[in-house]
């Protein structure tokens, strides 16, 4: 998971556009636009993280920095 990639997606893409990437990756189809990542798994991780952050920002009115902090906290807790 690369934070700069997620930040770029949050700043430049809509939730709907990111969902189209998610669906394309799950269906093993060509992506509608390039998402950085070393493989499909990392690309999917970046897209899902950006979707979560965008939806969280909208729901909570938090800025990107706060939403990213909450997302990474959630990921760390799920790993522990």
Short description:
This protein is mainly alpha-helical.
Task: Describe it.
This protein is an all-alpha fold and 80 residues long. The chain has one domain. The chain is 74% helix and 0% strand. It contains four helices and no strands. It has helices at 3-12, 15-26, 40-60, 64-79. α1 crosses α3, α2 (15-26) runs antiparallel to α3 and α3 (40-60) crosses α4 (64-79). The longest helix is centred in the middle third of the chain and has 21 residues, at 40-60. It is globular, with a radius of gyration of 12 Å. The chain starts with a helix and ends with a helix. The mean pLDDT is 97.
Give me the secondary-structure topology.
Blueprint: H1 3-12, H2 15-26, H3 40-60, H4 64-79
Helix pairs in contact: 1-3, 2-3, 3-4
Pfam family, one: DUF6952
């Amino acid at each position: 998971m690369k934070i700069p990639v997620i930040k770029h997606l949050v700043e430049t893409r809509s939730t709907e556009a990111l969902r189209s990437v998610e669906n394309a990756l799950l269906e093993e189809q060509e992506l509608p636009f390039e998402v950085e990542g070393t493989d499909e798994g990392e690309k999917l991780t970046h897209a899902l993280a950006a979707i979560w952050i965008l939806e969280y920002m909208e729901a909570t009115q938090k800025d990107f920095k706060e939403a990213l902090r909450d997302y990474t906290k959630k990921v760390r807790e799920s790993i522990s």
